[in-house]
Amino acid sequence: MTRTPIAAGNWKMNGTNAEARALCRGLAGIDAIDSVDVVLSPSFTQLPLVRDFWRGANVHIAGQNMHTQPSGAYTGEISPVQLAEVADWVILGHSERRQFFCEDDQALALKLRAAEAHSLTPILCVGESEAERENQRTSAVLTRQVSVALGDSPAPSGLVIAYEPVWAIGTGQAATPDEAQAACAHIRSVLTETLGAETADTVRILYGGSVNPSNIADFMAQPDVDGALVGGASLQADAFLAITQAIADSV
Ligand code: PEP
After folding, report:
1. Probe target for ligand 1 pocket from 100, 230, 236, with the most ligand atoms within 8 Å of CB
2. What pLDDT is attached to residue 153?
3. Are 247 and 220 in contact (CB under 8 A)?
4. Is the CB of 9 under 6 A from ligand 1?
5. Structural domains in the chain?
6. What radius of gyration do the chain's Cα atoms show?
């Protein structure tokens, strides 16, 4: 099964509108890199301008979070209906959302269904903490995060999963390619159990955690790694272009 790889940039809570526009300009030509799905995920306030900048180009735009309800008294939240006006993808369950905003697997199950209902392609983030890793709990944590979020429902269309070990995010200490492969293969085995082998084979699984232009090729050489979710390096246009090109070259 051939899975089109993904280069996804999570800009987190960074930059002004002017800086977001400059970053888009610096990424000129990224949409012409063949055989990769490029996804840019700016802050909510930057979404309209980033969407307009890439209108008609082969670039997907993702929210970094969303609420489950289409509207209502949820001050400070963004609904899937609102997000779908400016984005076609959504990142769900990033470890910073889990850690600082108490998102749990049950909430993510609802968010996945909401994404499906509003035609937003979800990137579901999973990954173990440092303590869980030290206690050899990585596989158990990934099994729980994936199976609870998916529940008994059919897979949301286009489902993408990002394996992001918490200890590797923003630390400069990436997982080894072997560690990434083992975790991604485990995630695919959980998908096989929950969704069946045929569907599991189509789900793209990304590695995320201190990815840079020098280490991306080694991750892409792993059979179950289908791309990268990139934080810090996605804020530097040259670095993200180089990562995207390396992902394309790995095909
Ligand atoms: C992330 O925030 O999803 C991430 C992987 O960050 P970084 O690339 O900076 O480790």
Report:
1. 230
2. 87
3. yes
4. no
5. 6-249 (3.20.20.70)
6. 17
